[in-house]
Amino acid sequence: MVAALRPRPYRSVLYIPGSKERALDKARELDCDAIIFDLEDAVAPDEKANARALLARVLAEADFGGRARIVRVNGLDTDWGREDAIALAAAIRAGAMVDAILVPKVSSPADLDTVAALVPDIPLWAMMETALGMLNAAAIAAHPRLEGMVMGTNDLARELGSRFRQDRLAMQAGLGLCLLAARAYGRIIVDGVYNAFKDEAGLMAECEQGRDMGFDGKTLIHPAQLAIANAAFAPSEAEIDLARRQIAAFEEAKAAGQGVAVVDGRIVENLHVATARQALARAEAIAERAK
User: Fold this and answer.
1) pTM: predicted TM-score of the whole model, two decimal places
2) pLDDT, tens digit, for every residue of 106-120?
């Protein structure tokens, strides 16, 4: 049975280095829906152990409000991945608040199995950033412990040998495969990062592209990107108004014994009403997160 999509918003998913105490403290006040506490790429090799201990303490003591707390561990093929998972399991037992563990470079369901065994009961997320991962996206999405998927477009571009294009032509096949897999199994899926954090127009265009494709939100590398992502992946006032009118018109038509309604010159059927209810649920979840 396919899991239902969660109403919790994931418009803005911000990477924070697990080794930077000041950044971890500041994150509690940032307007993001989720935080990826990173023990992998953002942490130098000689800081891995310190970052692991610091993050365990912070997640036990700090209040991050309604923001989802996701920890990205190092890969299990590195010197640090297994210790990350073991330390996280111990920290969670001791009271650290962790909503999910993000596993890097997932190329098959087997890459999730070891982490699932080391850290029981906590949802897993998969970094989708390898060519093999794209080809195995459906099998990965079907993993019973998986809750979400994160596009790792930088690593994917490196593996493909592709050049940057504003339209992300080289990414389209992988993005589409992962989106199809996520939706088939009811998983959350967020788009990859936009590297030029001072380029607001470029970020906005990529957010709009991701939103129109169907992503739940976007991973971000800088707090300056939050407002644009939050706006792009939230239902607009016009969309909320239309959703309400579609639901009202359809209910009125149904009460009159009709199977369809008409709003703004367009047919409204059951499927449109379901989409409208999803939009209102997202808007309500965003408002709740902001409290």
Assistant:
1) 0.93
2) 999 999 999 999 999
